Recover the amino acids of this structure.
């Protein structure tokens, strides 16, 4: 099934079930008001939502209405845990090559992951509000999952069983602030403004065999100012799959239902597929030409992130955003 | 007023109002079931809770019952943002001195802060469950605040106005895992198991003039295995006050109601006041004697953290925990 959250002026929004082709939707009222409630009590509520989803997909839901992505918040508008990994090794390798820093061997055996702030995600069509466009504004097209409860010490296979929903994300970055923060060793705070997620979150079965071994084997399309800059396979180059990421996160404590885990910027070993974040493009340029020539994003720039299924239909709907100045 | 959350097998627990002397409590049912609801709608709900608090303090509440800290979850059992600072410069200086690393000048002008996972806080009397006691288990006695909504770009003074509640925290650390994680630059994930908070969260007016200029001017008592190891002033040595910490956190994005900000380990410039985390004690030992002799915590070790008001009464109740093995 596919789930979205409509804006209703509340903090957690209003849960809707969305049809497979993203054409129609139905309020989940009577089952649950918010996705948080569903995640908190998945085994009880998910089957009821699935029945509603079946009805909607068969065209028999009586109060269906046209689905409008512009009315969406993030599927889970706030989360008590938001952890992003760097699970595509070609991304890590390219960035290291540009700085001449030696890549530790552990990068190939253990994922890098960091905690983020989950208190204010933005919707797929919301503007990205930034104080200054001299801060090195970058997009990061990612795949993300929402987990159920996962026990401390869960193996990668056990952790895979805990994955409830898949989404796309734009984990916006302020590269010039991130450099200093990374040097401090404590991760990113000011360098990461608000993250956006795709209009709908989908259960893994919705993508069929495109979801296998903890990876989403679909092409992630990234379009910057109307130009397709990335058509990257989101599965093939994923060094650490989502089960490994969640297991890593749960090594010393459990994860509660509603934790979101991001893949980090999608990246392909085949550079002809393009890029899912500007930093990687700039790193390749500085290795090839001695300097980075692609600029970061500016006010008025637009970004679109989408993934289509084998039938050519959008799976998650599109993230479509514009960079705008604060105040 | 003083607020606590009783365990009731739900994820967010049951909100109770607690009397000033911590002797009695009253369910907040009819006003709000959970502290999250109150924080989401503070201006509407806080005055109603305050009326109930007045009634309770005057001994006139009709359904009051004895308050039992052992029944408490963390006041806010899960939070969408949990950021810890390092706001006591004497702590930072002592740790740097032990490693011979040069302290950047910016440490004196800008706080260090990091994102943590807010999905599973533990109660003040809950065991600290750890996989291995060879991981360098340490306590960190801290002061923490819960914020309301704070705008992006808020000044330290504006940010101060957004502080709703004060608490104590034990931000447990696994020092041996943290060292590697800090070297990666992305902050702590496995190095930080579950954080515990004091039985009650209190509005700043409850501590009178002990809360001034964004600092809690009370003595933080830290007792390890029955021995008082720290009697540190939690205000005097706080280089960056809570308004500065929250303002720093909100530089590039707003904070939503229910964000928790920790002070980092309390530390006194006067070393005779003792310590609020073992790492600092070990750093001093290695400078003074060439090696750290105090061991980290082991299974069965106990910890108690408390702060008393001028009248000698416990303000927040005590955090009283034991380290226990997983499984």
């Amino acid at each position: 099934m596919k789930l979205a959250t409509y804006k209703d002026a509340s903090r957690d929004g209003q849960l809707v079930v969305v049809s497979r082709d993203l054409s129609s939707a139905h309020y989940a009222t009577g089952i649950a008001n918010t996705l948080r409630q569903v995640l908190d009590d998945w085994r009880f509520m998910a089957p009821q939502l699935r029945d509603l989803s079946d009805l909607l997909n068969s065209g028999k839901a009586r109060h269906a209405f046209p689905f409008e992505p512009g009315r969406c918040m993030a599927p889970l508008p706030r989360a008590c845990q938001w952890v992003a990994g760097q699970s595509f090794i070609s991304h890590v390798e390219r960035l290291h090559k540009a700085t001449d820093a030696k890549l530790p061997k552990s990068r190939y055996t253990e994922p890098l992951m960091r905690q983020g702030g989950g208190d204010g995600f933005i919707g797929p069509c919301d503007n990205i509000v930034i104080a200054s466009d001299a801060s090195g504004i970058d997009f990061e097209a990612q795949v993300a999952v929402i987990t159920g409860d996962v026990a401390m010490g869960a193996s990668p296979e056990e952790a895979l069983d805990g994955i409830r929903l898949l989404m796309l994300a734009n984990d916006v970055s302020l590269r010039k602030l991130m450099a200093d923060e990374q040097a401090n060793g404590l991760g990113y705070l000011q360098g990461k403004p608000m993250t956006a997620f795709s209009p709908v979150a989908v259960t893994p079965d919705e993508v069929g065999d495109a979801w296998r071994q903890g990876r989403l084997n679909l092409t992630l399309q990234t379009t910057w100012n109307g130009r397709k800059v990335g058509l990257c396979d989101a599965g093939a180059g994923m060094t650490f799959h989502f089960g490994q990421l969640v297991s890593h996160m749960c090594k010393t404590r459990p994860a509660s239902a509603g934790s979101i885990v991001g893949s980090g910027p999608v990246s392909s070993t085949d550079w002809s597929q393009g890029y899912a974040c500007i930093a990687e493009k700039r790193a390749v340029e500085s290795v090839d030409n001695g300097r980075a020539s692609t600029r970061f994003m500016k006010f008025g720039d637009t970004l679109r992130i989408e993934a289509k299924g084998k039938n050519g239909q959008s799976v998650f709907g599109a993230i479509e955003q514009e960079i705008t100045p604060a105040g």
Remarks:
- Chain A touches chain B through 50 residues (CB under 8 Å).
- Chain A has seven helices and 20 strands.
- Chain A has two domains: 2-67, 81-325.
